[in-house]
Amino acid sequence: AHAAVAATPVKGGNLKAAGFSASTADTLDPAKASLSTDYVRCCSLYNRLTFLDQAGVPQMELAEAIDTTDAKVWTIKLRDGVTFHDGKPLTAEDVVFSLKRHLDPAVGSKVAKIAAQIADVKAVDKRTVQVELIAANADLPTILAMHHFMIVADGTTDFSKGNGTGAFVLETFEPGVRSIGLRNQHYWKSGPNVDSFEFFAISDDNARVNALLSGDIQLAAAINPRSIRLVESQPGFVLSKTTSGNYTNLNMRLDMAPGDKSDFIEGMKSIVNRELIIKSALRGLGEIGNDQPISPANFYHNNNLKPRAFDPEKAKFHFQKAGVIGQSIPIVASDAANSSIDMAVIIQAAAAEIGMKFDVQRVPSDGYWSNYWLKAPIHFGNINPRPTPDILFSLLYSSDAPWNESQYKSPAFDKMLLEARGSLDQAKRRTIYDEMQVMVAEQAGTVIPAYLSNVDAITGKLKGLEPNPLGGMMGYAFAEYVWLEP
Description:
This protein is of the alpha+beta class. Helix content is 29%, strand content 22%. A hairpin with a 2-residue loop joins strand 6 and strand 7 (128-133). The model has no long low-confidence stretch (mean pLDDT 95).
């Protein structure tokens, strides 16, 4: 009985939280949102048509229902009785305007590439929207749950007011400094629980943790492993861990030496000590992976793909066959790709034991993504979570993928990608995606040893925070759902 009582949200209190990044470019325009700081604010002010639950399954939010018979033409029925902060009722025109903005190059939407599959959006009546896609895509309800697809009022040009249908009404917004939102008294859902929500950034990790420990804030986002022991040693504080599919990976280009020899790739996959990488490079903050970009947080994760064993003898056999023993082979690493330097050193040490020499080249963060990523023969990447296998595969592994990190090209893979995208049969899609994950793990030149965990540190009085596949801080939407115990 006690637990049931404890789980009842308490109303009241002022929530203060600190993220890790801020800039004068901070924005309340959902289409342009690019950092967690923007996402947190947008989640508090606006709503989406759908949102992803803890299991990564799309649930209805502003949409009451989303239906299709062919995965190409979709009918979206909107909730009745929803109003914007300025009192204007939500109608189909707002949804048409919000979706069409992403198609306008002048807007500079961060999801323009994903939105490009929309052929037409029109209002059928006040509460019904029809979306027609260029080609069938069964993932539309999940795509609409991405932060950028928040619904704004028709005709909005000034986003500094944050006029949405969301849980908080904007009181103050100073880009690069802070924002304050007050509880929306006319909110269409039962939340939020807190009276106000203040959000700002403290970029220094130690300072962020100290602000939490001294009671200035109730949540310190994304703290680093070194700060974890400090928080754990203080009574009255809790760690909230989310593993949502962010990963650092080792890329070997299949179109350049030495990655053009399949034995070299096989050797690399056997010399990577995944357990040690989690223990040492990630300080225990990760979940083991087997070179599949689809994480355990995703509904379509293939559980049958077991992590490759660390096997130096097998690696040596393949390296000898590839004729690379005795050469010094460069691996490019940088602080720009989380923990990549530590990973590279672990790989280098294991390889040295079998007579294989790697030269770890540490390069600065500045310019890493433009000068080395996708370019160097062996280098690291760092990929943020994406909500669907289709987006990850299209971005990273199809033959025409813009970020094809190992230059993996397979006509069979491309064909399966299109087939799964257009199918409304979930079981069939799962079978196809399972097989595609096996293909990537066995054929591509990318090693994904682990999924990185994000850790938010919170006061024990903050309740209701749950993990979410869209990222830390409950997929950045925590302010609406949490409550403070007095």
